[in-house]
Amino acid sequence: MRLTFIAVFCTCLLDCAGIIPKDDPSVVLEDGNYFGTLNKSLIEGREAYTWFSKQYDAYLPDKKVLDKAKLQRVSIKVFMGTWCHDSRREVPRFYKILDQLNFDYDNFEIIGLTKDKKGRFRDYSDFRITNTPTFIFYRGDIEVGRIIEKPEGSLESHMQKILTEL
Predict the structure, then answer these.
(1) Which of 101, 102, 106, 137 is most buried by its number of CB atoms within 10 A?
(2) Phi/psi at 136 (5° precision)
């Protein structure tokens, strides 16, 4: 009984304490949420984030809607909150689309923000983030479009609308 209490206490303490994973000092887990530079394996690997696999597995992207060649010519920056219900819905779906189209993740960055839409390790105010998630598409250094909070129609059709502008 005493060992069980100690194990539960330590787990709760570690989950709330602001743990920085050893291999990446640019991300922190605090109060059950990640802040900083994230990646798919970090998000889906957290046992408490059952929302990721639930959304990822259930989503059936319409790959025919997207121009894969144009998608490969952009880079994407995503601002999300692991605490945000819209991020919990849209980010796993977005990953599924990119995975099915073999997107080059060297051209992808995902940042976990605080509830006041601020960065934990960097100032992202130049990106004018008002809602999460925000998906920003770039051609070189030029922003070509955004999906803010939820797409107009499906994620794929909203992405294609942005890619059409290239």
Answers:
(1) 137
(2) -115, 130
